[in-house]
Amino acid sequence: MNAGIPGDSTRRTVALALAAGATLVLGLGLPPAALAQAQTPAPTQPAAPARTFDAFLLEVRAEALGRGIRPQTLDAALTGIQPLARVIELDRAQPEFTLTFEQYLNGRVTEARVARGKQLLDENRELLARVEAKYGVQPRFIVALWGLESDFGRVTGGFSVIQALATLAYDDRRSAYFRRELLSALTIIDQGHITAASMRGSWAGAMGQAQFMPSTFLNAAADFDGDGKRDIWTNKADVFASAAQLLARNGWQGDQTWGRPVKLPDNFDVTLAGLNTQKAIGEWQDLGVRRPDGADLPTRQLQSSIVLPQAGSKTPAYLVYGNYRSLLRWNNAALFAVAVGTLADRIGDG
């Protein structure tokens, strides 16, 4: 703002003062009662009451009907539901402490999970091979994602997805996003993939053994066994194929791995770290980057980046490829992507 030029607030103040003065001058010839009435501020209008949850559901119903969702689907899904206080509590909750990278990784890539992953990879080898043939995603990565998202289908969430999403859509913090997800969930029910009563998931609406949000389900869930339903809750074939299809649509390359841990030289320029910098593997080799045991990097000249998941530290360090970026499109968190890759490597078969 230029000096000497009154701003909007100053101009408003002057205008109000002039308006008040005009009232006083004009009021000099009025009777005292009329003068008092003229100078008495108009009563403040009470704020309109906030809409009720039932009114909100009527809005959702109208929008869903406009999208072609059948009335009987909406009756089954929306009748009698109420906001879930626990969902709002979890949405507002803040972690009491921040995990270090080592704590995060050790808590997710456990010996028990690695052993279970190896077992399930072996048990489902034929099915996983068919999924790989169609989508080009190596079985160990499908099993690793399955393990991290739902502990191999053991923990999928106990909330009604419709109630949870309706609660979050009614709340004003992220209402637009969750309203879209609620309408997507209603579409899934209307398409016959699952009933409203059986649609269970996390407090935020992530569903099934792959923990897909409803919009992700509509975009990437697969009916691998051809039964007419995309069942990521109970059907392993659909779970595996849905995970693979999402990765494939995110740019996954079946002839590459995700990345690898590396050792940086003492004089490494940390400004080169991050996904904004890409170099051929040989260029990182020339800069002194090596495998953790000091051996040379692979000779295949993939474009790659250095990532440092522990803020403020040069260790651990990872050389990551395009598939790491695909994992970030699944969950945009470096810790998650490294955990998936590490678990996949520990599970084996490549």
Give a concise summary.
This protein is mainly alpha-helical and 350 residues long. It has helices at 8-27, 32-39, 53-66, 71-78, 85-92, 101-108, 111-123, 125-135, 139-150, 161-170, 175-190, 214-220, 236-249, 281-286, 322-330, 334-347; strands at 159-160, 200-201, 259-262, 279-280, 303-307, 317-320.
- Order of helices and strands, N to C? HHHHHHHHHEHHEHHEEHEEHH
Backbone CA Rg: 29 Å
Shape by Cα distribution: globular
Mean pLDDT: 87
* Total beta strand runs: 6
**End-to-end C-alpha gap:** 63 Å
Helix content: 40-55%
Uncertain runs: 1-43, 45-49
As laid out across the biggest beta sheet, the strand order is 3-6-5-4
User: How many helices does DSSP assign?
Assistant: 16
Largest sheet: 4 strands, antiparallel
Structural class: mainly alpha
SS strand fraction: 5-15%
Topology (elements, then pairings):
Elements: H1 8-27, H2 32-39, H3 53-66, H4 71-78, H5 85-92, H6 101-108, H7 111-123, H8 125-135, H9 139-150, E1 159-160, H10 161-170, H11 175-190, E2 200-201, H12 214-220, H13 236-249, E3 259-262, E4 279-280, H14 281-286, E5 303-307, E6 317-320, H15 322-330, H16 334-347
Antiparallel strand pairs: 1-2, 3-6, 4-5, 5-6
If you had to describe this structure to a student in words, what would you say it looks like?
With 350 residues, the chain is mainly alpha-helical. The chain has a domain at 259-320. Helices cover 51% and strands 5% of the residues. It contains 16 helices and six strands. The strands form two sheets. Strands 3-6-5-4 form a four-stranded antiparallel β-sheet. Helix 9 (139-150) crosses helix 13 (236-249) and helix 10 runs antiparallel to helix 11 (175-190). The radius of gyration is 29 Å and the shape is globular.
